[in-house]
Amino acid sequence: MLPSSKSLRPDDVVLTGDRPTGPLHVGHLAGSLQNRVALQGEVTQYLLIADLQALTDHARDPERVAAAVTEVVADYLAVGIDPDRTTIVLQSELPELAELTMLYLDLVSVSRLERNPTVRAEAKARGLARGIPAGFMTYPVSQAADITAFRGTLVPVGADQLPMIEQSNEIVRAVNRLAGRVVLPESRALLSSTAKLPGIDGSAKMSKSAGNTLLLSATPDEIRAAVRAMFTDPRHLRPEDPGRTEGNVVFAYLHAFDPDRAGLEELAERYRRGGVGDAETKRRLETVLTGLLEPIAQRRAEIITDRQRLFDVALEGSRRARPRVAQTLQDVREVFGLRRR
Ligand code: TRP
After folding, report:
1. Which atom, in ligand 1's list, is nearest to the CA of 152?
2. What is the pLDDT of residues 106-143, one digit of tens each?
3. What is the DSSP string of 14-56?
4. Of all protein residues, whose CA lies closest to atom 5 belonging to ligand 1?
5. Which of 111, 283, 290, 317 is at 20 to 30 A from 341, Cα to Cα?
6. pTM, whole model, 2 decimals?
7. Measured in angstroms, how far is the CA atom of residue 129 from the centroid of ligand 1?
8. Protein residue closest via CA to atom 10 of ligand 1
9. Are 285 and 58 in contact (CB under 8 A)?
């Protein structure tokens, strides 16, 4: 099913990215991977592995970023991204992106960067406070370079990325204003229809450091353990008690992944009324997640053994995409009065 069929235009170019800081989890699946698989073949699509962006707050841990590049390629292929239909690129293999960033930085004020709510929240979450790397502060500008270099018009992301797209479009308008004509297209977000998935402990964000994620590579045992540990409704003590489905992690995940919508509605209804134990809802979720993740984890386990081949997929995609980003850089250089190379 294509969630975006209403809003999709045949000439849309999809560009989206992920920071390689570790393997992807089910939050990524619900938040944007499923959209990307659905869009594949409908329109031109690029997936960017943003290793330079990952380094903006992981410069002390470059091995982790390097290792995660192939982890993310493996995740893409395992969920059904086909590198012949979707071009997978590696940010650091496209120096044009860095040069574009340099030019765009001249169009953005420091105070505008300081107002970006996602950067603020991330800086706070990472305890960066005063020691915030300049590269981290300016990564929304580099993300604007990512989007515009590919002339991306549709960006499947989670809601936390909306400020990035807004900031990118401000830069697009500034470039076009400077040129006196339309040089770059604006882009729009494609949000998933499922709300953002909470961590298994019920906290708003899934993160590896909090140990509350469920990876795409999870084994049946890991799935069972995660579901068992899931936060439900602390006041729903006995099956007879009426329970809350809101804020209940088991229901949040069922809503995201259970294909039997009618059965789920009926279960939620009974749960709210009283008469359903958490054991029943958890059993259902375990079945749903095992059915969803088992084939993904299996495919992933097969392909992760050949890291070189996975890296080559990203190199080959970058090579294919390079003329396109080089063309955009030429156009923007010209706007700034620089020689066409
Ligand atoms: N900032 C995005 C994230 O943290 C990753 C990203 C990098 C991205 N470049 C992008 C997303 C370009 C969309 C478009 O998830």
Report:
1. 14
2. 999 999 999 999 999 988 888 876 688 999 999 999 99
3. EEEEE--SS--BHHHIIIIIHHHHHHBTTBEEEEEE-HHHHHT
4. 18
5. 317
6. 0.93
7. 22
8. 17
9. no
